[in-house]
Amino acid sequence: MLKRLLIKNYALIDELDISPAKGLNILTGETGAGKSIILGALSLILGQRAESKYFYNQAQKCVIEGFFQIEEYNLGDFFQEEDLDYEPETILRREISADGKSRAFVNDTPVTLSTLKALGERLIDIHSQHATLEINTEDFQLMTLDSVGENGSLLKTYQETFRKYRQVTQALHDLIEESKQAQSEADYHQFLYDELAAAKLNGDEQEALEQEQNQLSHAEEIKRALLAANFLLSEQEQPVINSLKEAGLQIQQAERYVSNLHELSERLQSALIEIKDIAEEVERTEQHILFDEGRLTEVNERLSLLYQLQQKHHVSSVAELLAIQKDLENKLIKLSSNDEEIAKLKAESDALREASEKLAEELRANRQKAIPLVQKAVIEVLSEVGMPNSVLSIELDSSTLRLSGADTVRFLFTANKGQVPQPLNKVASGGELSRLMLAIKSLIAKSSALPTIIFDEIDTGISGEVALKVGNVMEEMAKHMQVIAITHLPQIASKGNAHYKVYKAEAGEVTRSNMRKLSDEERVVEVAQMLSGSNPGEAALKHASELLKHR
């Protein structure tokens, strides 16, 4: 329920702080006093777009805040889906700056207007004589049957099952399409894989092959250079090794007379050993260097294959070719497993469809049982509010599975004796639709947790005893929910648990709209004025007092 509404700087309202009571709240006031302004402000926190021209003071921002008690509305899932903090007392706030920029908040968390609107629709239902299109919608008509049939738990179970069915069916469809696509590419993927597998790739081979190719291609040049080096070191007329040996002997001779030459002698001996080792390694290497034309051909062919595969797959290394080979292998494995997964999803989809159909049948049975209850209860209320010849006929037909079940519904209506009931949008006037909606919502209120409902002058065109009956219906509704009624009829105004008067007040050059809660004595005067005018006589005051006593 709406616990508090705070309006700052909107239209003719400077600042207004309203705390509606439980039950039936009555709003009265002269035409143009500002009742529609209050509804306009309220609509801003329900997601309606705003214009800065509605500001009381163009230099300041407009702020609308609504405080709602929401424990009974089962909104936990909504808050979770929208990633919002759930609070038993939830605050909706709208701020509009002078340049027209708007911000919306739920419990101080910024939200989009669409989120604010979606939540607002679950908290407040504004119902006017000209806003009865909802009653023509199939969603509302099914909701009516489900409320009376107490299908809340069953409908939730069905919707969870049906959503899962749709998810699995979509997954099945996607997998089948993916499998078809993969199947069409399977032969090509198999060819590519076989080609790579036949190559028996090794991640390190390319570098080694390129080095071997380089060596084989220059074998004669390498052999000639190594022979020349070996000749200089150990085979020429005065080889380097013999010269070093002779140099060592000479230093040893001098060492007998110069003691510090011993270190030089040892260093030269070490160098001689190293040079001998180098000479032997050069000779061994030279002997192993062979010009093998057959091996060079093999290496060239292998490298050519690697280069061709890399060019074909637009990569530059064997490691990348191996990654592609692995990916192709996975695709081929997945293709073989797709049939198993498709069969598994098909079985799951069939089972969920069967479960959905069974739950839908239960829903249909409950809805069928609710139809005579709804028809009877609505006709009884309509008889009370001045439409004794009304007929409401509800038709329920089978349909395909959807989120609301497997039913289509039509409310057929006539307010006149002897006429065949027709779809609501063809036969009901605005006033008739308003009273029909009042009758239906009064019925739903007894079986469901409805949001706060605001009746905006739906009593237009009625008076006397009918108005009193409409007031009785609202009073009955208010036992189950918070009702706010804007009215010009004293019979309805007298039914309220709380009565608020909307009025204009002038402060200097400025006119402001305001609102205040009336005391018991002030209510008598207000109702009397509604009965007889601005200066009610004794009879009007007495009549007003009698009306309020009945409350």
Automatic annotation (TrEMBL):
<comment type="similarity">
    <text>Belongs to the RecN family.</text>
</comment>
<keyword id="KW-0227">DNA damage</keyword>
<feature type="coiled-coil region">
    <location>
        <begin position="165"/>
        <end position="229"/>
    </location>
</feature>
<protein>
    <recommendedName>
        <fullName>DNA repair protein RecN</fullName>
    </recommendedName>
</protein>
<feature type="domain" description="RecF/RecN/SMC N-terminal">
    <location>
        <begin position="1"/>
        <end position="509"/>
    </location>
</feature>
<keyword id="KW-0175">Coiled coil</keyword>
<keyword id="KW-0234">DNA repair</keyword>
<dbReference type="InterPro" id="IPR004604">
    <property type="entry name" value="DNA_recomb/repair_RecN"/>
</dbReference>
<dbReference type="InterPro" id="IPR003395">
    <property type="entry name" value="RecF/RecN/SMC_N"/>
</dbReference>
<keyword id="KW-0067">ATP-binding</keyword>
<dbReference type="Pfam" id="PF02463">
    <property type="entry name" value="SMC_N"/>
</dbReference>
<feature type="coiled-coil region">
    <location>
        <begin position="254"/>
        <end position="288"/>
    </location>
</feature>
<dbReference type="InterPro" id="IPR027417">
    <property type="entry name" value="P-loop_NTPase"/>
</dbReference>
<keyword id="KW-0547">Nucleotide-binding</keyword>
<feature type="coiled-coil region">
    <location>
        <begin position="318"/>
        <end position="369"/>
    </location>
</feature>
<comment type="function">
    <text>May be involved in recombinational repair of damaged DNA.</text>
</comment>
